[in-house]
Amino acid sequence: WLKVHCRTGKYVLVKKLCSGRKAMGKKKFIGQAEMKIGVIGDEDTVTGMLLAGIGHVDGQGKKNFLLVGAKTHVKDIEEKFNELTSRKDIAMIF
User: Fold this and answer.
1) In this structure, are strands 11-14 and 2-5 parallel, antiparallel, or unpaired?
2) What is the pLDDT of residues 26-83, one digit of tens each?
């Protein structure tokens, strides 16, 4: 993971696209089309990103976004961050 500073003043975590995962003994590379963006942010940021089409819910009900409000606990944000960074299909966390 690389920590990249954006012009907006926010930091974004980016994962190398060439990182692979093993499938049946062979290394499988995730293509750019299969990679997703994870979002942790306020209502406006998350809504904008979802309207742009980055929202994804897998078969187990795991989402690639977290809407943070005034009542969101830091523990919930940390858990979502750790979940997103451990996923192999997430290329960037915004």
Assistant:
1) antiparallel
2) 555 567 667 888 999 999 999 998 998 888 888 888 899 999 999 999 999 999 999 9
The gap from C-alpha 38 to its chain's centroid, in whole angstroms, comes to 2
User: Which residues fall within 8 angstroms of residue 79, CB to CB, at 6 or more apart?
Assistant: none
Neighbours of 89 (CB within 10 A): 15
How many whole angstroms separate alpha carbon 32 and alpha carbon 30? 7
pLDDT at 29: 58
CA–CA distance, 14 with 90 (Å, rounded to integer): 9
- Structure tokens that stand for 68 in this block: 């943070």
Q: Look up tokens 């290329």; give the residue.
A: 91
- The pLDDT of residue 59: 85
Q: Which amino acid is residue 5, in one-letter code?
A: H
Tokens of 12: 């974004």
